Amino acid sequence: MNKKIAVASSDGKFINQHFGHATKFLIFSARDGSFDFLELIETQPYCNWGEHEDEDLKEAVEKLLGCDMVIASQIGPGAWEVLIQHGIEPIQKHGFIEDVLSQLF
Question: Where along the chain do its domains lie?
Answer without folding.
Answer: 68-105
